[in-house]
Specification:
The complex is a heterodimer of chains A (about 325) and B (about 350). Chain A has helices at about 50-55, 85-90, 100-105, 110-125, 130-140, 145-150, 160-170, 190-205, 220-225, 240-245, 250-260, 320-330; strands at about 5-15, 20-35, 40, 65-75, 75-80, 95-100, 180, 210-215, 225-230, 235-240, 310, 320. Chain A is built from twelve helices and twelve strands. In chain A, a hairpin with a 2-residue loop joins β4 (about 65-75) and β5 (about 75-80). In chain A, α4 crosses α5 (about 130-140) and α7 (about 160-170) packs parallel to α8 (about 190-205). In chain A, the strands form two sheets. Chain A has an eight-stranded mixed β-sheet. Chain A has a four-stranded antiparallel β-sheet with strand order 2-1-4-5. The longest helix of chain A is centred in the middle third of the chain and has 18 residues, at about 190-205. Chain A has two domains: about 1-95 and about 175-260, Rossmann fold (3-Layer(aba) Sandwich); about 105-175. Chain A is an alpha/beta fold and about 325 residues long. Chain B is α/β, with parallel strands linked by helices. Helix content of chain B is about 35%, strand content about 20%. Chain B has 13 helices and twelve strands. Chain B has helices at about 50-60, 80-90, 100, 110-120, 125-140, 155-165, 185-200, 215-220, 235-240, 245-255, 260-265, 295-300, 320-325; strands spanning about 10-20, 25-35, 40-45, 65-70, 75, 90-95, 175, 205-210, 220-225, 230-235, 305-310, 315. In chain B, the strands form two sheets. Chain B has an eight-stranded mixed β-sheet, sandwiched between helices. Chain B has a four-stranded antiparallel β-sheet with strand order 2-1-4-5. In chain B, β11 and β12 form a beta hairpin. The longest helix of chain B has 18 residues, at about 185-200. The termini of chain B are far apart. The chains are: A alpha/beta (about 325), B alpha/beta (about 350). Chains A and B meet through α5, α7, α8, α9 and α11 of A and α7, α8, α9, α10 and α11 of B.
Chain lengths: ~325, ~350
C-alpha cells in the first residue's frame, strides 16, 4: 500500500482481571491501517472486537484490571505500556472515537456547542470563542441542518441520527489521524445509517483519516471498508481485502456469517440459513480452534492445535484454517 | 379483501400521548387498520418513531387506544371489560425485544413458565412439569433449562424461553417486537427458523415488528409499511419488495446495505435525507412529503387515500398508479442533493 501506515498492531493480547475471574478477550491479534484507509473489524458479541480497540486507549470500565502484551504502534509511538498523561493527549487528539450509543457518550447537561468546543480548547489550544466558532464549522462539516440553533441545544433534543453527527463532530474536532468507530450505525435506522456512512466516507477523504470500524453488519463493511478482519472468540479468523473476503470467504466462520445474510432471491417463508450452536463463553484461552465445535469441516486436530493465521492462495487474504486452505486450494498454504 | 377470515382485525386505531409541549398531543398511531389471518406471519416495518411498537402495544393492551376497534375472531375487545377482557386478550401474546428485561432474574425458567400455566388453570404439579418440558422442547431447549436462572442462559436461549412462555397460554396471535434484533447474526437465523416452524406447526398468527427489512421479507407473507403513525403501503412480501409503490417504501428498500462490496461501490447519494419529522407537528397532507422526491403542491393539501394497485397491494400516494405502471418515481423538481460543505 502506497499511503503511510498509521497503526500497526502485532500479536496483541488483552487479559482482563475482574474480582471474580481472569479472561482473555483478545488473543494474539495483528493488523495494520494506513492513512485514508478503512479497516473493518467484524465479529459477534464477545468476539473481543471492542476490547481490542478500547483497552489500549485506557477506555475500560472501572474495577477491571487490564494487562496488555504485544505491540501497538501508532505513528511510531508504542501504546502498550504508555503512561496515562501521554495517552490522554492522544485520545480525542490524534485518535478520535465514536461509540454505538451517542446518548450515553454525550453529556446530557451541556449544550452541543460546548461539548464540541471543549475538544478544540483542549487539543488545539483555542480560546473559548474561537473554539465555539470552530464548533459551528464542525456542525456544518457533519452536515447538521440548522447548525446555529443546534449549538445551543442539548443532546435529548436531538434524534439518534443527529446525536451521532454530534459525536462525529467531536471525534474529528482535533483532526485525528485515526478514527475508531465502534458500531457507529447499529442504533440507527437504515435510512439514517446510509447518511452516516456517506458522511464518514466524505470526512475520511477530506482529512485523510485512517478509520477502524467495529461492526457486526456486513452491509456496513461492504459500504465503507477496504479491508476486513473477521474475529471469533478473541482471534482473527480471516483477514484481507473486502472484495475478496466478502465475495469469496475462505474461513468456515466467515462463510457461515455471509451465508446467513438473507438474500433477495430467498423465497418468502423459506427457512433462514445460519450457523449451528453458539459462540463460546469468554474464559480461559481455548487450546484448539475456537470455531471447531460449530464447524462442518473440523477434524480432530482442530480441537487440539490452534490454527495459525496464514496466507491463502490469494496472497492478500489470510485465514486461520488449515483444512479449508488445503481442501479448496490444493494444499497451497504458506506460513508467514 | 380475502376469503380467509382474519383472526385479528385492527380498525382505524388511534393511540395518542400527551406531548411535553403543553396542551399538545402526539398521535403515535393515527388511524391504522391491519388484519392478520390464522397462521400468517405479517411484517410491520418502518423507521424508529413511526409508531410500529405503539401499535403492537395497543393491540395487547399495554397502551390504551383513544379510538378505533380491535377485533379478535370478530369479538370487539373495546366492548369488553375486566375479567372477560383479560381472558379474551390472553389469545394475543407479546414477545419483547429484550429477553433480559422480560424475564424475572430471581425465578427459574421452570417457575416463569409455570406461572403462565397457573393463569390458564393448570394447577396439577405433574401436568405443569410435563407441559413445561413440552414447551421447552417446542422451542428447541433441553429439559434441564427448567432448573436454570435467566442469567445462566445466552441471549438466544433467553429469547426461546420468552417464546415458550408466551406459547404456554396457547395464543392465537403473537405480537413480536424486534424479537431478534438484540441477537447475534449467527443466532438470529436459529430463532427466526423457530418462528417459522411454530407458525407452521401451531398455526399461530404472528405480527412481526422489525426494522430489519431483509429479515421481514423472508419471514413474512404480507407486509405493512408504517410512516409517522400511518400505514403507507401494504401487500404481499413479493409485491412490496419487488414492486414497491410508495416512494417511502422505495427509499427504505434502497437504503438496505448490501454485503456485496461490488454493489456498495455503485451506491451514490443516500436514498433518503433528513430525519423523520416530529409526530407532534406532522406535515399537512401526506406526511412523507417533506422527504419525498416526488412531492408536489397537492401533497400538502390533503392526506392521500390508499390507492389499490393490485389485489391487496395498496399505497397511500397520489402517484401510486403512475409509479406502479411505469416503475419510475416521478421527480418534478431536480433531486435534492446533500448541501455542499462549507468547511
Amino acid at each position: 500500500m502506497a499511503s503511510k501506515e498509521i497503526l500497526r498492531v502485532s500479536d496483541l493480547c488483552v487479559d482482563l482481571f475482574t474480582q471474580r475471574s481472569v479472561i482473555r478477550p483478545v488473543d494474539g491479534v495483528s493488523y495494520s491501517v494506513a492513512a485514508g484507509e478503512t479497516l473493518a473489524i467484524v465479529g459477534e458479541s464477545g468476539s473481543g472486537k471492542t476490547v481490542l480497540n478500547f483497552a489500549p486507549l485506557g477506555l475500560m470500565p472501572t474495577g477491571v484490571n487490564v494487562d496488555l502484551s504485544g505491540s501497538i504502534l501508532f505513528n511510531d509511538t508504542e501504546l502498550v505500556g504508555i503512561a496515562e498523561p501521554a495517552l490522554r493527549k492522544l485520545r480525542g487528539g490524534s485518535i478520535g472515537t465514536i461509540f454505538q450509543d451517542p446518548m450515553s457518550a454525550l453529556n446530557p447537561a451541556r449544550t452541543i456547542g460546548r461539548q464540541i468546543a471543549e475538544v478544540s480548547e483542549l487539543h488545539m489550544g483555542l480560546s473559548s470563542s474561537q473554539a465555539e466558532s470552530r464548533a459551528l464549522d464542525l456542525l456544518k462539516l457533519v452536515r447538521m441542518s440548522d447548525p446555529d440553533a443546534r449549538l445551543k441545544q442539548y443532546p435529548h433534543e436531538l434524534s439518534g441520527g443527529l446525536r451521532q453527527r454530534v459525536m462525529i463532530a467531536i471525534a474529528v474536532a482535533a483532526e485525528p489521524q485515526l478514527l475508531i468507530a465502534d458500531e457507529p450505525t447499529t442504533a440507527l435506522d437504515v435510512t439514517v445509517q446510509a447518511q452516516i456512512i456517506a458522511l464518514l466516507k466524505d470526512l475520511q477523504k477530506r482529512l485523510n483519516m485512517a478509520i477502524v470500524l467495529i461492526t457486526h453488519d456486513m452491509g456496513v463493511v461492504a459500504g465503507i471498508a477496504s479491508r476486513v478482519a473477521v474475529m471469533y472468540a478473541g482471534r482473527v479468523a480471516e483477514y484481507g481485502p473486502v472484495g475478496d473476503v466478502l465475495v469469496e470467504p475462505r474461513h468456515p466462520y466467515t462463510m457461515g456469517l455471509i451465508d446467513a445474510i438473507p438474500r433477495a432471491d430467498d423465497a418468502p417463508g423459506s427457512l433462514f440459513r445460519g450457523l449451528p450452536g453458539a459462540p463460546p463463553i469468554l474464559g480461559a484461552p481455548i487450546p484448539g480452534c475456537a470455531f471447531a465445535p460449530r464447524c462442518h469441516a473440523a477434524i480432530e486436530s482442530c480441537h487440539i492445535t490452534r490454527p495459525a493465521l496464514v496466507s491463502t492462495v490469494q496472497p492478500l487474504v489470510s485465514a486461520a484454517c488449515p483444512i479449508i486452505n488445503k481442501h479448496n486450494h490444493g494444499g497451497a498454504y504458506v506460513q508467514h | 379483501m380475502s376469503s380467509t377470515k382474519s383472526v385479528l382485525r385492527v380498525e382505524n386505531l388511534v393511540t395518542r400521548f400527551k406531548s411535553v409541549e403543553r396542551g399538545k398531543w402526539v398521535k403515535a398511531v393515527d388511524g391504522v387498520s391491519i388484519e392478520l389471518r390464522p397462521g400468517e406471519i405479517v411484517g410491520l416495518v418502518g423507521e424508529s418513531g413511526c409508531g410500529k411498537s405503539t401499535l403492537g402495544r395497543s393491540i395487547v393492551g399495554l397502551e390504551r387506544p383513544q379510538s378505533g376497534r380491535i377485533l379478535l375472531d370478530d369479538i370487539d375487545l373495546s366492548g369488553l371489560g375486566g375479567r372477560k377482557l383479560r381472558e379474551t386478550r390472553r389469545a394475543i401474546q407479546y414477545v419483547f425485544q429484550d429477553p433480559y428485561a422480560s424475564l424475572n432474574d430471581r425465578q427459574t425458567i421452570g417457575e416463569a413458565i409455570t406461572e403462565a400455566l397457573v393463569i390458564i388453570g393448570i394447577h396439577d404439579r405433574t401436568r405443569q412439569r410435563r407441559r413445561v418440558h413440552e414447551l421447552l422442547d417446542q422451542v428447541g431447549l433441553p429439559d434441564t433449562v427448567a432448573e436454570r436462572y435467566p442469567r445462566e442462559l445466552s441471549g438466544g436461549q433467553r429469547q426461546r424461553v420468552a417464546i415458550a412462555r408466551s406459547l404456554a397460554v396457547e395464543p392465537r396471535v403473537l405480537i413480536c417486537d424486534e424479537p431478534v434484533s438484540a441477537l447475534d447474526l449467527s443466532i438470529r437465523s436459529q430463532v427466526m427458523n423457530l418462528f417459522l416452524t411454530l407458525q407452521k406447526d401451531l398455526g399461530v398468527a404472528c405480527l412481526f415488528i422489525a426494522h430489519d427489512l431483509a429479515l421481514v421479507r423472508q419471514a413474512a407473507s404480507r407486509v405493512y409499511v408504517m410512516y409517522l403513525g400511518k400505514i403507507v403501503e401494504q401487500g404481499t412480501s413479493l409485491d412490496v419488495y419487488e414492486r414497491p409503490t410508495h416512494p417511502y417504501t422505495r427509499a427504505l428498500l434502497a437504503s438496505i446495505p448490501s454485503a456485496d462490496p461490488r454493489i456498495e461501490a455503485t451506491r451514490e447519494v443516500p436514498a433518503l435525507l433528513g430525519d423523520i419529522p416530529s409526530p407532534t407537528n406532522p406535515p399537512s397532507g401526506c406526511r412523507f412529503r417533506t422527504r419525498c422526491p416526488s412531492a408536489v403542491e397537492a401533497c400538502a393539501v390533503a392526506e392521500p387515500p390508499t390507492v389499490w394497485v393490485g389485489p391487496g397491494h395498496g399505497a397511500a400516494c397520489i402517484f401510486a398508479a403512475q409509479i406502479r405502471a411505469t416503475e419510475v418515481v416521478p421527480q418534478p423538481e431536480p433531486q435534492r442533493l446533500p448541501q455542499q460543505l462549507s468547511a
